[in-house]
Predict the 3D structure of the following.
Amino acid sequence: MNKSVVNYQLQDQLGIITINNPPVNALSHPVRAGLTEALEQAASDASSAVLIICEGRTFIAGADITEFGKTPQPPHLPDVIEAIESFSKPVVAALHGNALGGGLEVALAAHYRCAIASTKLGLPEVKLGLLPGAGGTQRLPRVVGVEAALDMMTSGAPINASKALDLGLIDKVLEGELETAAIDYAMALIAEGATVRPTSHRVAAVPEASDYYDQYLKKIERKSRGQIAPGYIVELVELSTRTDITAGQAVERERFMACRNSPQASAMQHVFFFYFATSKLPDIPSDTPILPVESVAVIGAGTMGGGIAMCLANAGVPVILVETKQEFLDRGMGVIKGNYATSVKRGRFSQAQADSFLANFSGTTNYADIANVDVVIEAVFENMDVKKEVFAKLDQACKPSCILATNTSYLDVDEIAGATNRPEQVIGAHFFSPANVMKLLEVVRAAKTSPQVVQTFMKLAKKIGKIAVAVRVCNGFVGNRMLKGYGRQAQLCLLEGASPEQVDSAMQDWGMAMGPIAVGDLAGLDIGYRSRRDQGIESRSVKESTLADTLVEMERLGQKSGSGYYRYDPETRQRQNDPAVESLIDEVAATWNVERRELSKDEIVERLVLSLINEGAAILQEGIAARPSDIDIVYLNGYGFPAWRGGPMFYADTLGLSVVVEKLQALQSSTGDACWTPSPLLIELAEAGKPLTSLN
Ligand code: 3HC
Ligand code: NAI
């Protein structure tokens, strides 16, 4: 047995198998081999029961991602799991941290399960384009019932220990220190003569409604659009109610292999793998010492400031909100309190949790009150003069070690840093709206930002639950810069003949969470309008923004005003096509001498996606993003790009870069539009026969 990874010891009548495979006790080959050997040892010794427990921060968090794509080495996980379930003495699994994927499948094969209260349990395989492949689809419904099993497996979302107890997924919530409590529980089971209890001998109840599974598929249609695995999961859960585990697992294996060999699984595993890479910066050693962050000030209690402050408060960081007037502070705090009240009503937080978050807030209109904070995040109006004035004041008011961050969407962070005497302490922190919900954070490294400040911010981002991607300064950074060309193509498609509905459904059917026109209405058309005026662009002076400018001047600001590109039902907020907008598009097209024609879905998708790819490549070449996968992570987490397509850069590789370059050149010659000039990086890689992912 590999002693360092899996250890076995007999303590009184209990055989204890301890897994120690940091950081997350993944089911690497030595763990599978060690578990098998430990079980063999326990089979022939004086133990009356066996306990499986893990050292470190977590129970088994799943298969080992570093083994993905490699030839699997025996013992295979389903065999290890079968050995646990068919073991002749009771097996108890003691969970803590995360019991995910193959980790939960191991636990499901044990005869008894206990967990400490903070444990998270889940089968997240669907997020990797897979389904649970080691009996999970057959055992989970037998333990928690069809509905809960479907919910857990089709969403991939974990549940907490108290929910797991309610569902019967665990038998006991442990109190006190893990090992002691788990041993006590296992010894009590021995004392009461507990016997083996194979999960596969249990039977899941058949749902009453005859169309139950069709209804369930309908329910998850929107979220699982385009993905293979969720449909298979529903099929396999149904199977678990009417067949034995051997037959069920045989079909599970087939479906698992079909998923594993699909391009979706490669795309989603690419994302998963590189999700961990984003926090590692190629030029900053990961052991760079970070600065302590005990308290944060947020300047501006508006839409973004309020959301950012909530993220900090929820993570236990005391936050001081700073506004220009008490009334604005009160208004901001009012919105925050309202948000917490809604969360409590919806059961997201308990009242006690919401109260404890609110206790982390204080407010001021006086910069002297933030002299001692460790970090400031500025979220005032998007205007360079205002930002510079605020940063000059912060430079005066805050202690020298304080990090000054700006949440600007587009402005030059170097110029903002220039308003201070500490440019090495200035950084961009581009949160996405709503900031307390959206996971993405672009950490913008300005020319002089010190590595220590970058590293501190990356760690702070993780602490507050964000997926941080480090980027460099340019207009719009990675996400919004790429969005500009994408949005421009959407507008040109409208003028050339497509309706808002056609553009949106083309992109949504392709997999985007929302179409670009509907996104505009959701965000508010006035934001772009104001930003164009701030940049000195005259209203209706640019072809691709004439329609948007006109709508804003008609007071059609999007959803918030009841109409924009679409009309919104005041009751249901359901969008409706608006003939008035169709006529307006005709007029605008005529003004710009654009002849309207029929546009195919494929043309719309191709133009919008190619524009993302070409700009993404330019961003890479300029070093704005360090890796193609960083761009993919930005698009998946901030812009609703379908995970099963892997992100725009990964998707470019699946098309083939020479095909991408040919298509760009064809568009360039047919339209004469400079935006289609292929990025030199794409040409270089296509000529060398290399994919973009070779740069990861
Ligand atoms: N295999 C190998 N390494 C893993 C891993 C895995 N499954 N999951 C995480 N790690 C590594 C990360 O790369 C990271 O390494 P680093 O320290 O060198 O950067 C380290 O563990 C810590 O990861 P996090 O920073 O994410 O740590 P957290 O404590 O914040 O989160 C976690 C821990 C919740 C376990 C999170 O890492 C996670 O969600 N991991 C993925 C879990 C998962 O999806 N498992 C299912 C795999 S599929 C499967 O089991 C198939 C089966 O059905 C056959
Ligand atoms: P907002 O208008 O909702 O809030 C700005 C707040 O700043 C107001 O409450 C205002 O009173 C306050 N303020 C103005 N000057 C101040 C000063 N000198 N000191 C203290 N407070 C001051 O604006 P929003 O939408 O929150 O945007 C803020 C920043 O976040 C902008 O830079 C914007 O570009 C950026 N951003 C906005 C996103 C969005 O979707 N709204 C997304 C990402 C970034």
Summary: The pocket of 3-hydroxybutanoyl-coenzyme A (ligand 1) is lined by residues 23-24, 26, 58, 61-66, 77, 98, 100-102, 105, 124-125, 128, 132-134, 136, 276 (CB under 6 Å).
